[in-house]
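Email to the structure team, subject: P-type Cu(+) transporter model.

Hi all, the expression group asked for a predicted structure before they design truncation constructs. Nothing fancy, just the tokens so they can compare against earlier work. One-line instruction: predict P-type Cu(+) transporter, return tokens.
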Amino acid sequence: MEAKANGTDDLKVPLLQPSESVAVTVSQPNAKGFKKTRKSMFKIGGIKCTSCATSIESVLKKIDGIENVTVSPLQGQAVIRYAPELITSKTIKETIDNIGFQVEEFPEQDIAVCRLRIKGITCTSCSESIERALMMVDGVKKAVVGLALEEAKIHFDPNITDSDQLIQATEDAGFGADLITSGEDMNKLHLRLHGISSPEEVTIIQSSLESVEGVNHVEMDKVGHKVTISYDPNLTGPRSLIQCIQKAGNEPHLYHASLYVPPRQRETERQHEIHAYRNKFLWSCLFSVPVFMFSMVLPMLPPYGNWLNYRIHNMLTIGIFLRWILCTPVQFIIGQRFYVGAYHALKRKSANMDVLVALGTNAAYFYSVYIVIKAFTSYSFEGQDSFETSAMLISFILLGKYLEVVAKGKTSDALAKLTDLAPDTAYLLTLDGEGNVISEMEISTQLIQRNDVIKIVPGAKVPVDGVVITGQSHVNESMITGESRPIAKRPGDKVIGGTVNENGCLVVKTTHVGSETALSQIVQLVEAAQLARAPVQKLADQISKFFVPMVVVAAFLTWLGWFIPGEVGVYPKCWIPKAMDRFELALQFGISVLVVACPCALGLATPTAVMVATGKGASQGVLIKGGNALENAHKVQTVMFDKTGTLTIGKPIVVNTMLFSNVSIQEFCDVAAAAEVNSENPIAKAVVEYAKKLRQKYGSAMEHVTEPKDFEVHPGARVSGNIGGKLVLVGNKRLTQACNVPLGPDVEDYMSETEQQARTCVLVIIDGRISRGFAITDPVKLEAERVVSYLRSRRISSVMVTGDNSATETAIAKDYEHPIAKAVVEYAKKLRQKYGSAMEHVTEPNDFEVHPGAGVSGNVGGKLVFVGNKRLMQACNVPLDPDVEGYMSETEQKARTCVLVAIDRRIAGAFAITDPVKPEEERVVSYLRSMRISSIMVTGDHWATATAIAKELGISKVFAETDPLGKADKIKELQMKGVTVAMVGDGINDSPALVAADVGMAIGAGTDVSIEAADIVLIKRTLEDVITAIDLSRKTLSRIQLNYVWALGYNVLGMPIIAGVLFPFTGIRLPPWLADACMAASSLSVVCSSLLLQSYKKPLQAQDTCSV
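Reply from the structure team: attached below.
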């Protein structure tokens, strides 16, 4: 059988040759692979449930020319990728319209994004000047310049301008600029071409590459025979691009390509900047140290002093002449950068530190030149030059810049470590048609494509994200998630690129490569966060606008304040040092004021702290999306936790079931599982699995669940449908009330008992009579109580909002993924196995419908079945008997969720479902309480169930029976009272609430770190990271405030002292070069202060360490 390399169906071995060059033998790709595609977004009205989205997708996918369709019921949107040669957007709109939905195409907004590396940026004034220059370019929509990151991110219209014009605009503003990325070219492949003999052949290869679908841009170096290809990993891959090069031209294999790894631009630029400042400082020392010796040290030694005072002509001495000769190269050659910077700053009508340095050094230098001229032409002139001031000023500034650049490089250490996690090579497996491994080859990680199968040996790093196919092992994910313990991996588990395989051999199918890997997304997210400005940065921005003009005015007033009183005799002559006159003394004070002021320290106070904090958070599994989220998190007073999957483990299990009618256990299990089988909700899955096991226990295996007819989801109540000619309702007490199903005393008692045990009661009604009930539990997370307690200690209240027994809008978008629905399905399968025939296959229900916040319904075997909560039963007029009511009450009092099942509008039974609380939750709640942060639980579950769980965790406030939009409303109510609220949810079901909250935290993101609704993404599912996020933000804001104290302290306190306020009382006067040393120290102290955040430890871990 012909060998096939996974990831590219047409690719055949050998994949790589042993040599450096890459030679791939491939068959001709099909024509479809070369068609250019287009991606469009459509707004669709009338989508009510997942089945609507599924019907739209199924119809569109049958049309020739449409490659991919994704319909989101929650947002009412569809993203469609299609070939314009085969189909138009108009045809797509007409097709959707014919199905019965209203459709409108979003207007195209052709916006590109590019990132530039900025050279020569020193302060906030510089960044504002660059932003103004970029915004003046036609077509630029937005420009953001990061001072600490030394990068610019520009959103522009590619039809009007391009990256070259943006670079030119930056250079015209007086700064250097290099392109980092442009457009959607995060995935780049760098190749060196072999076999090229003429420029025409380079053009042939470029044309071949540009014709490949998914290639965004091809950049050719015709001299060095190098090519850089930007591509979409969803449409092509590196080996496919290499094969295209080999097939270019008239003869196959005429050209070859080898990987070319360009130097990392950021590290290269940083090292170049460090070396440049170091070399300039050393060169300046070569001249300034002798100047200092000739002016301050040697004149005190008689032999040397006499020689230096020897007159060359008139009053011009050897000492003055040597200082002039040595200082001039420092002033005009080594200090050239300050002249250039000052020129460009004044040209763009702004001022920065370069202006202050140029003014101060020029004043000292040209005054000294005046002294030289007067001494040369006069027989009796006596004056003291200040050449040492000019030379020492420039030397100290260069030393300060050198130390500052070195320190700033360390602020991005955490990010650099993340980028170095991915390995260089990986073992690619080639499979035959039956999945057997026929060859294994070590290739560069850059050549891995989606759907490749790779082998990861013990001790090796995982190259990209993927899913384990075979093998078992433990993987160390601490470098990505911060989890200290190795995580067990089995077939079906996800692995993250950059993590380390410890003890077993794993075979993994790649799912995300290039910029799509979790590691790349984390790096991109952290870089974006470091580029964004925190609101607290506005203080520095406002000060920078008038800082330099104020300093110049202060320096001039200082000179006047000493010169004029000296001329009129206000202060005695004994105050004037020897060899000086009043003008020189005033000049020294004025120059000192000019050079001691430092706008750089103010500009670095916030971005350096944000850089270190975001990098430190990323290394511990807490991704903070910018300074705004960081600043808001420190103000949090209340944390609102979603219950299912946040406070609880998120894997509900059925703990009990109850029949309320004469329906057999086999039929009950069949209809319950059939009604819930289409739901991806965890509770639905739990019901299906339980029904299968129960069916198997009492009879043959229940692998097939009958599909219900007239299936309907009842929001907040559960589901209903027709199964086997019987109307079945599965849900809570609200469903029975809505469907007029009476609840008997026994049912009421059962429900009450279940709820008291913090479990959810699910009832099953068949033909209007309650048949059985399920008791379902969802264990609370272990850290939940600890988080709430910690918040309470910090005076931040916690509110629990839950939507238990209800399908959220997002759950609809995911084909009804409610956890209770999953629990019911699993339990029904088990029960059906226990009591009846084998349930090998779950029957697909007809007319399946999801009822948001209530449950589902459908037709199973001709019977209308409802499975859901009480609201569903009430909405469908299923009566609840007293015994059903009693069972629900009992179940909910046990902190369990009750899922009712109704067949033909009669309660057939109920499931009691529990979702265990996370073990750390109580500790987390307690710790939050110590932080004076209150905790609130929000859930769609019944009040009794919610209250029982909240009591177990120590949460005093609960919002129950709340749907997703209701959660957002609860947050807004708290905000109207002046409370700063953080919402903690899974990032999917809780999107409206995450957006509404002051700080949205998506927990358990795993590899999906780009959740748009969240301000902070917590990679792990542990709630302890909620505390980490809030505590890190508080520590960071405290550090920023301390940085401002350092920066403003140097300027506010230093300037009056340097201006001579204490001179009349103490006689102490700081020369300008010493004032300049203080200025350099201010910037360095701010950066070093921010670097202290690298020693941050998680509060709960630190508490555990102290307790040990």
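Confidence is low (pLDDT under 50) at residues 1-35, 805-816. The two ends are 62 Å apart (CA to CA). Ping us if the truncation boundaries need rechecking.
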